[in-house]
Amino acid sequence: MSDEITLTGIRAFGYHGVYAHERREGQEFIADVVLSLSTRAAAVSDDVLDTVHYGELAEQVAAILAGEPANLLETVAERIAHAALAWPIVDAVAVTLHKPSAPIEVPFGDVSVTIRRTREPA
């Protein structure tokens, strides 16, 4: 059994997309990140060093959203998952990346991609 830390609605302006106008004009992207980990040591010690500092992780996620452009949401989500798994305490992560202003020709509320990744065995 594992615990979860959830960050919802991390927003940043980025330039991801397959179309030239998306790369030129940019748009807002939103990420939700769910970490699977044990928080037992942190609960006992009451020390942020025994868990994931979610403020620092949120800054990393925002930097990825605003950072190097990618064609696909899948690529950006993978970068976020990699950053989350860099925290040694994290066993698995689910990343949902939203693109609410995607260039879709019919009315829609949101488009998102969700990926799930686990730590690779050593």
TrEMBL record:
Q: What does this protein do?
A: Catalyzes the conversion of 7,8-dihydroneopterin to 6-hydroxymethyl-7,8-dihydropterin.
EC numbers on record: 4.1.2.25
Family note: Belongs to the DHNA family.
Q: Name one GO molecular function term.
A: dihydroneopterin aldolase activity
UniProt cross-references to Pfam families, sorted A to Z: FolB
In the UniProt record, what gene is named as encoding this protein? folB
Keywords attached to this entry: Folate biosynthesis, Lyase
Reactions listed under catalytic activity: 7,8-dihydroneopterin = 6-hydroxymethyl-7,8-dihydropterin + glycolaldehyde
* Pathway(s) this gene product operates in, as recorded in its UniProt entry: Cofactor biosynthesis; tetrahydrofolate biosynthesis; 2-amino-4-hydroxy-6-hydroxymethyl-7,8-dihydropteridine diphosphate from 7,8-dihydroneopterin triphosphate: step 3/4
Against SUPFAM superfamilies, the record matches this protein to: Tetrahydrobiopterin biosynthesis enzymes-like (SSF55620)
User: Mind telling me what this protein is named?
Assistant: 7,8-dihydroneopterin aldolase
* Occurrences of domain Dihydroneopterin aldolase/epimerase (ranges): 5-117
User: Which species is listed as the source?
Assistant: Microbacterium dauci
Q: Is Lyase among the key words of this record? A: yes
Superkingdom, natural source: Bacteria
Read off the InterPro entries from this record: Dihydroneopterin_aldolase (IPR006156), FolB_dom (IPR006157), GTP-CH-I_C/QueF (IPR043133)
